[in-house]
Sequence to fold (865 residues):
Amino acid sequence: MKKLTTLLAATALASMMASAAWSKTLVYCSEGSPEGFDPGLYTAGTTFDASSRTVYNRLVEFKHGSTELEPGLAESWDVSADGKEYTFKLRAGVKFQTTDYFTPSRELNADDVIFSFERQYREDNSWNKYVAGASWEYFSGMGFPDLIEKIEKVDDLTVKFVLKRPEAPFLANLGMDFASILSKEYADKLEADGKMELINQQPLGTGPFTFVAYQTDAAIRYKANPDYWNGKQPVDDLVFAITTDAAVRAQKLKAGECHIMPYPNAADVPEMKADPNLTVLEQEGLNVAYLAYNTLVEPFDKPEVRKALNMAVNKQAIVDAVFQGAATVAKNPIPPTMWSYNDAIEDDKYDPDAAKKMLEDAGVSGLKMKVWAMPVARPYMLNARRAAELIQADLAKIGVEVEIVSYEWAEYLKLSSDKARDGAVILGWTGDNGDPDNFLDTLLGCDAVGGNNRAQWCNEEFDALMTKAKETADVAERTKLYEEAQVIFKREAPWNTLDHSLVVVPMSNKVSGFVQDPLGIHRFDGVDIAE
Amino acid sequence: MLRFIFGRLAVLVPTFIGVSIIAFSFIRLLPGDPVMLMSGERVMSPERHAELMHQLGLDRPVYVQYLDYLAGLVTGDFGSSIVTKRPVLEDFLNLFPATLELSLCAILVAVCLGIPAGVLAAVKRGTWLDQSIMGAALVGYSMPIFWWGLLLIIFFSGYLGWTPVSGRISLIYFFPSVTGFMLIDSLISGQAGAFKSALTYLILPTVVLATIPLAVIARQTRSAMLEVLGEDYVRTARAKGLSPFRVVGIHALRNAMIPVITTIGLQVGVLLAGAILTETIFSWPGIGKWMVDSVFKRDYAVVQGGLMLIAAVIMIVNLVVDLLYGLVNPRIRR
Fold:
């Protein structure tokens, strides 16, 4: 049956392409294969680009190129005075996509919203375990199972989320990929047919593009959704040409085999900038790389020791050597593109002499420490070993002997969160939802000690601000609280903030309307291509 | 002959069990587990980790997991990917034709060029031609595939614009996969220009993948030919006044082919290993890339299933080679 539907889809598209060979096709050289097409199941950006941002919508959406929220499938919402009830008014007349494998008979309603969330946490929901190992990782990672009391249908176009406690970042979380809205009618049909796993292979949503076919590891094909509630797309077809090697992606872009590519090699960027046929977009990513001390272990429990070590490291040299300039030195734990970034804060000045004196004043001499270097390249840190070597050389100048250690990636992630960890660890973070809470509380809150808080740093003053900011819905008020928290962070120095890397997107000059997204997602709604 | 075939088949069973044990334990010996990698930088609580390991059945004793896996294998169930949740066998069957098509083309090129080059080098032993062929073979053998592939792409696709950069066929063609072989499917599709497009996309990856086997085959053919050309029966054939072509092409080459066939058989493993890199460079959707990704993600089911299936392919090819060997050299059959 699956083969037959693929065959039908292919035949339909083939005939469509034969009759309209001049159809406008936008080709995106994507960096990898999607793990699947059900955004609730996964955490990788590659999967989200191919599923949630093309096929689906959410109740609220991030504005193009921003971390601000705007109405999506919900045209408006109310938050109760106690911050525990969120009531969403759904947009009327939103149609689900019509595909070769399913024709919807009704428009979007509250049942679809309730289904999309309940399947991720209610064990009595038949979709909760529809594939082996369905872990709903993001839903769980964002703390939703402990947060949501219930989701109620008020009427067909009104849905209410009741929370167990006030949580200001909740709204931003609803803009995330795992919160994509699926069709309950389609799900019911698949369940009745005993083919539930197809929801992960043949997605169907309300988004700008309709899924056509996935040729494993080769290409994903979409066509513009003619019924899209926000208007039809300027291009007719969208193709993801899966090209894992960055150098090859660059060659394909130059040869005109694709129009947009993500994640170029830093070394290829200058040549691309010089190419008159290409445009290179650059933007600071929503990320940070850091060196986290273990603040539970002597002598790193003293802020002045941590501060002295921070002052001994030449961060600009790291940015130059590791990123060839495609990054900026970080002074705060949140990136500059994020609201509430406190630009008034001054970074610890690189001053080895002063650092050495501070260390002596703190009564520390002959210090030996370990620096952990990640074994893999991540967007925020392309070469942790190189960075560690530079840190080692810098700290040697103030009499600190550094031993560089590394572990296999999964081990690294596990061992680095151990409270008794020996040494400072290089790691980083890429924001999920554009909310400062997603960096500050997730990575530095007391609850995260022994987990995401690799500095094992628990500061009551800082934590009180985090709690207050979570309970406050007013953005201006929250901004003040987070700005204050960054001051405490700088004073206490649990990390040495290393860099925020630039996200670079080279594309053909023929492309218009593509906007870089601070969340690192690649969206193609509104993108056009000159014939 | 029949006894010989059954004898060979009987050896396959313990080999297959051996491979299953190695495949099963190899991936589990690597540090880290798939659940840990699922969450990336975001730390998972020990309780949640335990819950997910339980869901996936990974908290059971390894021998229980193995026996369970073996029971599945008997019924042809290779399990489902932990990451994509798709059945391993389905993905393998989907991707293997791409690897097979590329490998067959590569081995064809390697044999068609390698054997004549080796024969020529042997016949012209010590001349500049011999030196050049063997020099080129040495360079080919030492070439890092990744670098070689990128070099060809930059020159032929980037600079000259003669060949496409990567992929299996131009994206303007889209038709249902019938055999999985793009050359055949493009012909079946009836779409004008599709076959030509598939052919042009095949050129560079074939050249890259064929390079090492070509060099090996050429060197092996040369040394085997040199040995045979010195035999008495060749001298006799020459003395009888046979034409040089007959002497070299029929009398010498046939006997020199025995070690060459073995070498070609062994190249299947080399091709599959080379396919991993070639497929990555040329975005070729085959099993090489699929396996590498799975190792990184600790996708146990895919790694062990994939290894078993690849091992099965290699075993079958070796069986065929053994049988061929028996045909060429009847003494082996005893």
